[in-house]
Amino acid sequence: xxxxxxxxxxxxxxxxxxxxxxxxxxxxxxxxxxxxxxxxxxxxxxxxxxxxxxxxxxxxxxxxxxxxxxxxxxxxxxxxxxxxxxxxxxxxxxxxxxxxxxxxxxxxxxxxxxxxxxxxxxxxxxxxxxxxxxxxxxxxxxxxxxxxxxxxxxxxxxxxxxxxxxxxxxxxxxxxxxxxxxxxxxxxxxxxxxxxxxxxxxxxxxxxxxxxxxxxxxxxxxxxxxxxxxxxxxxxxxxxxxxxxxxxxxxxxxxxxxxxxxxxxxxxxxxxxxxxxxxxxxxxxxxxxxxxxxxxxxxxxxxxxxxxxxxxxxxxxxxxxxxxxxxxxxxxxxxxxxxxxxxxxxxxxxxxxxxxxxxxxxxxxxxxxxxxxxxxxxxxxxxxxxxxxxxxxxxxxxxxxxxxxxxxxxxxxxxxxxxxxxxxxxxxxxxxxxxxxxxxxxxxxxxxxxxxxxxxxxxxxxxxxxxxxxxxxxxxxxxxxx
Length: 482
Hints:
Number of domains: 1
Strand order of the largest sheet: 1-2
Low-confidence stretches: 470-482
Mean pLDDT: 85
Strand content: under 5%
Largest sheet: 2 strands, antiparallel
Helix content: over 70%
Oligomer: single chain
Distance between the termini: 35 Å
Radius of gyration: 22 Å
Structural class: mainly alpha
Order of helices and strands: HHHHHHHHEEHHHHHHHHH
């Protein structure tokens, strides 16, 4: 029922039909809810991962936290490549040029494979040296290096997973990517359960069971996640390539050879996103360099608190996905009224949802941290920094969803500059000043101030910026090439 209703409402955009406020709100909800649930399931998986690794000790937790920002960096680059093509697909589908959308999809598979393999090779080469560059102590660098290496080798899988899920979302299908992401989370927990810990006795319902285990520790955590990712990638690609009504590639013959026009458009959309993510994540890596000298307790508390905070901001990313799809198809259909209408509805919804989540995080911070670590010092410090961050959540939501709106419009260059200004000019500067005297709390105060500042400037651009101008020029170019 929900799926057919979603299809009906999406067709109203492409067919130029009038949409009431109720129709718009219903469509935003239908696209946002599955994506939010998928994001939340992903965070639950990270919680369980973190709690499993946390039971191994503070050093093992710190080894994962040391390279986590670097993993976000390479993952974000894969996401930027994917978005360069998926935005084009959204515009083509909105303009009812479905064959052109499938042609872009074919080309993206070739480019994605080349990029994923290249990135995997680079990651494998630097993996022995990265933990040392980040300032990790000798007690954690070996585990951190193996963790990063395993994830690096799986980057081609991640790239294809991003491409397939992004294409499905651009076509208006949020349900299948969400279901597969939930399955990946469940599989990750199962694989980790057997790979992280050794064979052990478990008491359940008054009975004792022998649970087999590989006892691989941090290496097992990375391996379990990669295995789950493999299953998810195969399923996502199968549905996008062979079963999606709008995307399945057998509907006509086409070439997988990238064309200059398609790659150039993808570069203009994705390159600023990649640069933005590079600058943002390199700033997060710099934060790790600032935190690392504070000791393993601070490093582990920082890592666990970042994971805990994800419970609040991942719903924002779910709504942002919906905003990208709706704005992209509205622009492709040349529906200026819907473009701005969907932008405003999604931003307000994101701020309300994340505001509520911020309140819950403030209240439940001790419980959230205790789930992930049995170390009292880590729990106490993590609780303090989470309560600092809770104040920024509504405006953090504004920046997240506004960014999704701008991506849907194909306007990514100026948001990149805004993020650079915010991260490097506000967060890093304040963190470097406050960390020596206030420790980890100072770092998170700097983060809170920066997120509030970023939300304000993104809302200003949404209100007064000409963020649809670039996409209109690209739409004309796409029509000329079609």
